[in-house]
Amino acid sequence: MEEKLFIYYTNDFHSNFEQWPRVAGFLEEAKSNRRERGEPYWIFDIGDHVDRVHPISEASMGKANIQLMSQLGYDLVTIGNNEGITLSHDDLYHLYDQADFDVVCSNLHSLDEQEPDWLKQNKIIETDSGIKIGVIGLTAPFNDYYDLLNWHVSPQYEALDKYVKQLKQSADIIILLSHLGISEDQEIARRYADIDLIIGGHTHHLLRTGENINQTLITAAGKHSYFIGEVMLTWDHELHKLVKKEAYATNISEVPKDLVTEQILYQMQVKADQQLGKPIVHLEEPIEVKWFQDTKILKELTNTLKEWTMADCAMLNAGLLLDELPAGDITYGDVHRICPHPINPVVVELRGNELLEVIRAAFTKDFMELKLKGFGFRGEVLGRMMFSSIQVETAFRDNGEEYVVDAVFDGGIPFDAERTYTVATADTFTFGRLLPEIARSETKHYFLPEFLRDLLAATLRDKFAME
């Protein structure tokens, strides 16, 4: 006799609450269909459901996300880096206290040796017919951040060696919930033939019908839950093995919104607005924000960053601030609105010649106009770079493009090409190839759990408040 098992999943939702009523509409219908047919089903999330870019998540420190997943009947989730490194240790420790689902993350550990009650290293699910499904969860090892928050993520292969072997003895099917990215998922499939299914995320890849490697089915559903993932596993009870594995990602853009969920979100938004609505400063005049011009607010924010980190100099891009601030009372909600990015301050070490290369690159048209998506940045374009303790002389070419003629420290002090300087900036630039010299720096000191918007709030209070 053959039996079909159904798994529905989301990954990398990133608090895209405008889409959540469609997610609810799709999953409620799917659950109803499975119940009518008497077929076993589960709902999983693969991490990065929380993103403090949204005021609901910001005000609740992610607990609203957990409430929504519980209400929709999720069974099992793993955590992503947005849950793991954008919350304080205490906020993550208590994030899932009220969850009506299990949390599996096999490689996350608290450094104070006091693990939260909700954290499970693995989980075995048993169907009514006796099929045992072993689940492992893995999250990406951003330990430069995790260690500062008193957590640690152990190597994924260390966890896999332990739990795949363990589950092979007691489970019929092994599933990995992987917030590691597509390349890691493919490598894991090559190394561990005993893993039947890898449901992935982190790199926002979309596999419409899955991918098979070494008899392991890999799947993922993009980002922001514009697609919902569905897996169908066919188990043969006589042969005592899986005989078929199918994966699909369904576009839910035309799915009707669930009206109850819309009402819940409305109430959550009202509550968030109230929580974030306390005034932090009163402005006599509006504050201008411009992405391609120097402004007072960005200059003062960059100065605050330098002072707060005690670096030799600091630099921030104007695209971090999304909108101007009006005259009158300014709330933390206003600060969150114009600086929603989950971006932390960082100090890197650069030699003088490397610092000069960074400054030159930051003044190129390609850099300033780059429409960056990712690395924590939630804005439109990177914009013009502002510096603290550095004076930059620029000129214009015949085609109108600006370029750097010279750069010196305040007081006309030239850079020493071989001397090492500490440079404070946004942690965005420590990833990828935006500014290679910063990404390659061997010394990076991240500041957590503060975001740049926390420094912006301090700047407004200290530099712009009415006397």
Automatic annotation (TrEMBL):
Residues 290-428 form the 5'-Nucleotidase C-terminal domain. Keywords: Hydrolase, Nucleotide-binding, Signal. Belongs to the 5'-nucleotidase family. GO terms for molecular function: hydrolase activity; nucleotide binding. GO terms for biological process: nucleotide catabolic process. Residues 8-205 form the Calcineurin-like phosphoesterase domain. Gene3D superfamilies: 3.60.21.10, 5'-Nucleotidase, C-terminal domain (3.90.780.10). InterPro entries: 5'-Nucleotdase_C (IPR008334), 5'-Nucleotdase_C_sf (IPR036907), 5_nucleotidase/apyrase (IPR006179), Calcineurin-like_PHP (IPR004843), Metallo-depent_PP-like (IPR029052), Pesterase_YunD (IPR011240). This is Bifunctional metallophosphatase/5'-nucleotidase. It comes from Oceanobacillus arenosus.
